[in-house]
């Protein structure tokens, strides 16, 4: 009859997704403490999985909202190709990412970013990354927002992917600090001067309104090459911090 009790107990534990190894510790536990410790270990494991699932759900909702927003922009631009989207003041929250850096001029005619896409995808697979094609670029000192103008020199970029946490060891974690700034939407390829044109419109409008901007920026791709290779469907939100955040630049985390 003992084996019947063991089967019943195993089925009950299986219903709460108990691993086989832990089932053995509980079913054949020699005392109350050993059973209690095994259950507590499983409870901790279940709690961590639940927290991760909740985080993933929250991020999925946020990603869906961003994609819906991007599709709305695309729909408007297709109806009215000459439409210029409103510039707006934004409050951007602090963000944890994994990032790799490279150097290029702003146009990046050598497509240095493309050579780093496989690397950042590989790194993202090693950590608790937020998927759904999320992609972020950070630019440094490519433009002088006070003029405004671009200097056409070689400067640093970061290409990054958002992550949930730092629970998995990795040398590529970076924090993009919270900031307040000015924002614009760009649709289509960033090449052939098109992204420069959007930046210039943003910086000129900021100057008209009396805003002083920093000389670094965040480009958050709402629809990126990691989602589609159709350049006409790419949507980028450009965010330039206000001047007071000039020195509050992203920092690598060790």
What is the CATH third-level topology name of the largest domain? Multidrug-efflux Transporter 1 Regulator Bmrr, Chain A
List segments where confidence is low: pLDDT < 50 over at least 5 consecutive residues.
Answer: 1-10
Percentage of helical residues?
25-40%
Strand order of the largest sheet: 1-8-10-9-3-6-2-7-11
Q: How would a textbook summarize the main sheet?
A: 9 strands, antiparallel
Calculate the mean pLDDT score and round it: 81
Instruction: Determine the oligomeric state from the structure.
Output: single chain
Number of helical segments with 4 or more residues = 5
| Class by alpha and beta content | alpha+beta
Distance between the termini: 57 Å
CATH superfamily of the largest domain: Regulatory factor, effector binding domain
**Total DSSP E strands:** 11
Work out the radius of gyration. 24 Å
* Beta-strand content bin: 15-25%
Shape: globular
Strand/helix succession: HHHEEHEEEEEEHEEE
Please give a structural write-up:
By secondary structure, this protein is an alpha+beta fold. It has helices spanning 2-14, 20-27, 32-79, 112-126, 194-208; strands at 88-92, 95-104, 135-140, 143-144, 149-150, 155-162, 173-176, 179-187, 216-223, 235-241, 251-252. The strands form two sheets. It has a nine-stranded antiparallel beta sheet with strand order 1-8-10-9-3-6-2-7-11, with helices on both faces. A hairpin with a 4-residue loop joins strand 4 (143-144) and strand 5 (149-150). Helix 2 (20-27) runs antiparallel to helix 3. Residues 1-10 have low confidence and may be disordered.
């Amino acid at each position: 009859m003992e084996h019947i009790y063991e089967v019943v107990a195993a089925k009950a534990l299986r219903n709460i997704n108990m691993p086989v190894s832990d089932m053995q510790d509980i079913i054949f536990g020699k005392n109350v403490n050993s059973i209690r410790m095994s259950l507590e270990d499983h409870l901790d494991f279940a709690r961590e999985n639940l927290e991760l699932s909740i985080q993933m759900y929250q991020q999925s909702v946020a990603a869906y909202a961003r994609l819906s927003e991007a599709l709305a922009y695309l729909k408007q631009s297709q109806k009215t190709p000459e439409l210029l989207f409103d510039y707006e003041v934004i409050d951007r929250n602090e963000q944890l990412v994994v990032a790799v850096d490279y150097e290029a001029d702003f146009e990046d005619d050598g497509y240095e970013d493309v050579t780093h896409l496989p690397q950042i995808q590989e790194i993202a697979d090693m950590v608790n990354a937020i998927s759904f094609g999320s992609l972020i670029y950070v630019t440094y000192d490519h433009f002088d927002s006070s003029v405004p103008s671009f200097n056409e020199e070689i400067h640093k970029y970061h290409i990054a992917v958002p992550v949930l946490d730092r629970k998995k060891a990795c040398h590529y974690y970076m924090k993009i600090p919270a900031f307040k700034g000015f924002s614009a939407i760009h649709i289509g390829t960033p090449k052939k001067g098109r992204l420069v044109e959007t930046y210039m419109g943003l910086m000129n409008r900021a100057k008209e309104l009396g805003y002083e901007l920093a000389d670094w920026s965040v480009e958050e791709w709402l629809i990126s090459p990691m989602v589609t290779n159709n350049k006409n469907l790419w949507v980028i939100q450009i965010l330039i911090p206000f001047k007071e955040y000039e020195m509050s630049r992203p920092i690598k985390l060790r």
